[in-house]
Amino acid sequence: MFPGVRWLGLILGVVLVWPVFAADDPKTDKKPPSKERLVTFKTLDKVVLKGVNAERKSVSVADAKGNVELLGSEDVKVRWLSPPPGFDEKGNIKKYTAKELAALKTDKLEGYPADFSNLKAGQVTKLVVKKLATAGKKLDKGDNGLRVTFIVILSDPDNK
Questions:
Q1: Is position 31 within any domain?
Q2: What is residue 20's three-state secondary structure?
Q3: Is residue 84 part of a domain?
Q4: What residues pair up with 78 in beta bridges, in sequence order?
Q5: Which residue from 65, 49, 35 is spatially nearest to 151, judged by alpha carbons?
Q6: pLDDT tens figures, 57-108
Q7: Can you say whether the dihedral through the CA atoms of 116, 118, 123, 128 is positive or negative?
Q8: How many CA atoms lie within 13 A of 21 on its CB side?
Q9: CB–CB of 151/115 below 8 Å?
Q10: 128: β partners
């Protein structure tokens, strides 16, 4: 009788625990839908950044009327046009091999992966700006309804 109870307990334990492990599968987990609905607006090429606010994920650019702050979308992507600057053991600028370049390029997007923290004032960038589809809703004060969805760092004033 005891061996039968042991097997029953083992089967019951597997049946109860199995769904917990299956729920953590990253392939089946879906990204929650974005709250912001954006429509294509404009691509700004060769824009010099006047300021960067990493907390708000925003960049400031010069306009005819002065500086304009553009907020980043929830999933803003930042890229380097050329490979990110790197240095060898002696402190010289690193020359990447074809194999290293292929390893750096992780997806089919333009350029090489970067982070919002790589952005600095004075960099020349390409910005893809989209407009919020507000559908009659009022925006917060100071919100121009524009979101940056893609930033490519074309050149860095520190690494010319």
A1: no
A2: helix
A3: yes
A4: 151
A5: 49
A6: 889 888 777 788 888 888 899 999 988 777 888 888 888 888 888 888 878 8
A7: negative
A8: 6
A9: no
A10: 43, 150
Tokens of residue 5, six digits: 């109870």
Q: Provide the whole-model pTM.
A: 0.68
What are the C-alpha distances in Å from 151 to residues 7, 49, 100, 112, 120? 58, 11, 23, 11, 12
Whole-angstrom distance, CA of residue 105 vs CA of residue 83: 9
> Within a domain: residue 132?
yes
Please report whether residue 100 resides in a domain: yes
**What CA–CA distance (Å, rounded) separates 41 from 88?**
41
User: Which domain, by its residues, includes 47?
Assistant: 38-155
Gyration radius of the chain's alpha carbons: 24
Average pLDDT, the chain: 79
The answer to whether 41 and 117 are in contact (CB under 8 A) is no
